[in-house]
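Rotation project, supervised by the postdoc (A.L.). Task for the rotation student: set up a whole-complex structure prediction and record inputs and outputs verbatim in this book. Inputs entered:
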Amino acid sequence: MTTTPMLEIRNLHARIEDREILKGVNLIVPKGEVHAIMGRNGSGKSTLSYVLAGREDYEVTEGEVLLDGVNILEMEPAERAVAGLFLAFQYPIEIPGVATMTFLKAALNAQRKGRGEAEISTPDFMRAVKTAGEKLNVDSDMLKRALNVGFSGGEKKRAEILQMALLAPKMCVLDETDSGLDIDALKVVSEGVNALRGPDRAMLVITHYQRLLDHIVPDVVHVFSDGRVVESGPKELALELEAKGYAGFDGEKAA
Amino acid sequence: MNKYAIPTLKEEIEDATVDAVLSLDVDKYKYGFESHFETDKAPKGLSEDTVRFISAKKGEPEWMLAWRLDAYRRWLTLTEPTWAKVHYPPIDYQDMYYYAAPKSAQKPKSLDEVDPALLEMYEKLGVPLKERELLAGVEQPRVAVDAVIDSVSVATTFRAELNKQGIIFCSIAEAIREYPELVRQYLGTVVPVSDNFYATLNSAVFTDGSFCYIPKGVRCPMELSTYFRINEAKTGQFERTLLIADEGSYVSYLEGCTAPSRAENQLHAAVVELVALKDAEIKYSTVQNWFPGDKDGKGGVYNFVTKRGDCRGENSKISWTQVETGSAITWKYPSCILRGDNSRGEFYSIAISNGYQQVDSGTKMIHLGKNTSSRIISKGIAAGFSDNTYRGQVSAHARATNARNFTQCDSLLIGDKCGAHTVPYIESRNASAVFEHEATTSKISDDQMFYCQQRGLSEEEAVALIVNGFVRDVLQHLPMEFMVETQKLISISLEGSVG
Ligand SMILES: Nc1ncnc2c1ncn2[C@@H]1O[C@H](COP(=O)(O)OP(=O)(O)O)[C@@H](O)[C@H]1O
Ligand SMILES: [Mg+2]
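Outputs recorded:
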């Protein structure tokens, strides 16, 4: 069976200021699959997520990124979002004074506008938020609070997944979604993510702990080291990594 | 019960923020049009003859002319103040017109009789009457509109109903003719004739404005609303507003402005006087959106306004809420004199400057009575090459035992070519007074911008959303009609501030 790539990264090099961080990333995530990227702190995982999303501090010096067959490297961040790319942030940003509900609606309508669709009606929006919110234990009280302001670690991550659920992206990149979560929160968030798996969507789950992958079970695991993918394999690779540590893989790359 | 019940009004308003953000594309600064009315002008320049001409045109009694002439003579002895942090070329007061009135000033009985061209203009201005439909399903407060075009009231609505309650709401010119005792009793008692250069000029040549009197114990059943509009090339605008809330009464007054694009600078020197007697409350809200000048800083309105409220009686309360997005130069300090014991003054302000705009605005809270309290929340947003200064004075007189003030002054900078300044003056001659002052300055962070853009918002939409969040504490104090309009204005006035 042939698979169609949702995300295809070819020989991606990127730098910040004068420092090269991504040094030739190659990666394909087919439609319907969930891939994990594991790598030690500082290996460039978050950088990869920012470069995919188009953050302007990073300069891409080489390579290509195709989203559902379309090169996105020339696109603005908002255009990439409209094209279906979603990044769940490792550290979600506070937006003081803007109620979570308001933010959700602004984002959803901005994306609809970007696709030439009509604005969502308030009743439809309320229904969508209600459905998505219930699964993630996000109540109306939380929706009225300013986005991420004074949110606990768990609330921040639930709010990220809520946005992901509402925006229904094709390609989800989740950066350390497990950080700052206790086990109960981890379960809620993972269930939320799992509910969004589907044949027309792909996910790239970034983590440096194996434990997240017990809850969000990946189809493929990639090991990331010093700005590139050094090894790929089935989900068992994560366990191997946990047992051996990253050092073994660094050695392989160095060899 | 469903946790996600019908959205509250506030949520609806938040939805409106979103709508405003989303309508950015189509909502370019589109208020730069002119409507064509024939006008009847006084000769150019300022002299005793000009003052006599204005007074005669208005059919004023002798005492009013004398009052004006006295002001004119005092004005000749004054010089323009220079302490504000604003810069502009010298104004030639002889190169301006001081009177312009639409030709057919026949007063229509209702909006139905108003010139369709005028209604169309309101339409273009987005007068909130129309926008209330946005808030479908919500019972709407009624608004009495006393529309002012080029210095003369053209339309007044809801008059009959207000009259039934004894409320007087009319042009100041009409008040001078019809209610001379009231006018004589209160005019110039809050802002004296020689208060300052601009107020004195206004006293000499004011052409129109509103007069409002709420009788004892009456709660005004609707928001009183005036839309000011500068519409005639080189016409200085000298509005005079006098609002009196008699004992135990309440009134909410809305003032909103937009102006067409002009190459010529336009001077506006209004005076607003509020008097709150015992147990009375006045809520005065302004949205000011005059032409700020083009992208190089040319043109635009000079807005030198004197607004002051006198909490004259015990337990009275005056609350100013202002949204300042327009004008090339703003010089404006809506203030409260807290004369009555237990009286309270409030000042809530959003001041946005972009391009080459210069804003020097703030308030004065003068505590004279015992147990007086005041609250100041100021949100300044500076973008482009603009300068945005908050200047505030809080003072307690020796008699002002237990005076209380809380001031919060937040500035938000967009880009690195603009400036925000906070200049608080605090003086207390009573040891029991407690004044608190908090100030912050922040920038919209790259992280916030990137986060919003990752969710699909354009740069401008992101800025508008973040700024709307920043001003939220003040927005909440605006009447419903203005809240929606303000959120749109914020988007419009910050266009071009990023990228
Ligand atoms: N803004 C920046 N300026 C300079 N170096 C940076 C910046 N952001 C990240 N880096 C560096 O890039 C490397 C990769 O960081 P990051 O992508 O955050 O790794 P990870 O997410 O795998 O922990 C690190 O060495 C980090 O110090
Ligand atoms: Mg990281």
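Student's summary: The longest helix of chain A spans residues 100-114.
Supervisor addendum: The two ends of chain A are 34 Å apart (CA to CA).
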